[in-house]
Automatic annotation (TrEMBL):
Name of this chain's protein: Amidohydrolase family protein
CDD domains: metallo-dependent_hydrolases
Keywords: Lyase
InterPro entries per record: ACMSD, Amidohydro-rel, Metal_Hydrolase
Residue stretches making up the Amidohydrolase-related domain: 14-283
One Pfam family named in its UniProt record: Amidohydro_2
Organism: Streptomyces solicavernae
Top-level taxon of origin: Bacteria
Keyword Plastid: no
Length: 284
């Protein structure tokens, strides 16, 4: 791990897609993966099934200088509670990027604003798990708030590993048409609709994509990144961010880095993706 980023001449990694959440919630997430739930539909062993303190120590040992606490509700009434936990977690974890979440429900604008005012630096939206339309009218003022404040939102909106009613580029395109300055980070490179989400990044200057699980052996078997689109990754060098899905990955963390390296896009691209772009976006 350290040999990788030291060779690039950066002080470490910035990972915009790591999961920390209340232990009882995380255990249920792991149980879902273990049970081959319908949103995964495949065997998915959790590589880093450790206690919270061990997971934090591992990230720091890997050289991850800044990371997120991606958490998300699957029903109304959860998001404000999760945001309270995330604020407490950020208060005792100086290297985490204070993360918040949302759900289309009454009061969402209020608790989203409270989270921003409390110092949230990034939001998480999970269209697949939440089963909601990101263009839902109840979320419109929240997207406006985040666009105005410059707060990024990492959104799982692609249709991998299983499509949902509101996954895919079309609902997201409707959001961006209304809020073109929204700092949207498309999780998983938009897998499997890679080209469509690259189109959105080319159309909107504040749209970014994270690498979470993309290009790995695991994902290439299921949703291979089109070889014809590889040159676009170089063109969008400043808009691609390292993401991993730690700890909920079925392979070692370092494999994500090796998967990016074997794209053959050069050390400058790797420096930008693995450190510089995230550091610039979050000011660190």
């Amino acid at each position: 791990m350290r040999a990788f980023w030291r060779r690039l001449g950066v002080p470490g990694l910035v990972d915009v897609h790591t999961h920390f959440m209340p232990e009882q919630v995380l255990r249920k997430v792991w149980a879902y993966f273990d049970g081959v739930g319908p949103l995964t539909g495949m065997e998915w062993p959790i590589a880093y099934r450790r206690e919270e303190a061990e997971r934090l120590a591992l990230l720091r040992e890997f050289g991850v200088r800044a990371f997120t606490a991606m958490l998300y509700p699957h029903k109304p009434g959860m998001a404000a509670w999760l945001n309270g936990w995330a604020a407490e977690f950020a208060g005792r974890t100086p290297d985490v990027l204070h993360t918040a979440t949302l759900f289309p429900e009454d009061g969402v604008e209020t608790y989203a604003r409270e989270a921003v005012e409390a110092g949230a630096r990034v939001f998480k939206s999970h269209v697949q798990v939440g089963g909601y339309d990101p263009a839902d009218a109840r979320l419109d003022p929240v997207w406006g708030l985040l666009a105005e404040s410059g707060t990024p939102v990492v959104m799982h909106c692609g249709s991998g590993p299983q499509p949902g009613k509101y996954t895919g580029p079309e609902p997201v395109a409707r959001v961006l048409a209304r809020h073109p300055r929204l700092r949207l980070i498309v999780a998983h490179m938009g897998m499997p609709e890679y080209a469509d989400f690259l189109d959105l990044a080319e159309r909107y200057a504040e749209v970014r994509l994270d690498t979470t699980m993309a290009f790995t052996d695991f994902s290439e078997r299921l949703s291979p990144f089109p070889a014809a689109e590889r040159s676009r990754l170089a063109d969008l060098e400043d808009r691609i961010l390292l993401g991993t899905d730690f700890p909920n990955i079925p392979y070692p963390y370092v494999h994500q880095l090796h998967a990016l390296e074997r794209l053959g896009l050069g050390d400058g691209w790797l420096r930008a993706v693995c450190h510089d772009n995230g550091a610039a976006l979050f000011g660190g």
